[in-house]
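Journal club side-thread
Mid-discussion, someone asked how the predicted structure for our own chain would compare to the paper's figures. Pasting it here so we can look after the session.
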Amino acid sequence: MKATENSSWKTVSEIDLIYRTKVKSSDRPKITSSKSAYAILMDCWDPDKIEFIEQFKVLLLNQSNRVLGVYQASSGGIAGTVVDIRLLFASALKASAVGIIISHNHPSGKTVPSEADKAITRKIKTAGELLDIKLLDHLILTGERYYSFVDEGAL
């Protein structure tokens, strides 16, 4: 059968990533600093995994820096995780987010950013600029403390 005989390939499948809310804007937590972002993220992190496997999560924010939701972009191994930036921004676009705070944990307990951490931050910042979705911070978390790219002047 020739490709031209079967035209079903022309149909775009439905995207499964959805965003629905029943939460009033005033009931959403507001991010006012890296400390408040860390507190919200720690509340969403599985304490059994923070020192076990590396995960990458995104806080999706509205214009008032209120949290629309948390998107788990990836879950990896002990020493790293891979983030698909297209899916990260698909979630931000579906939620109508205007800002994001990206985060990941270091199971080692060290908060010093690696070169890979710096590179993914630059890449996400650049992609966000094209979509008018501002990267507000990147936090590296452990169970006891965090590193903020903004607080340290690295973003």
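Post-session note: DSSP finds three helices and five strands in the chain.
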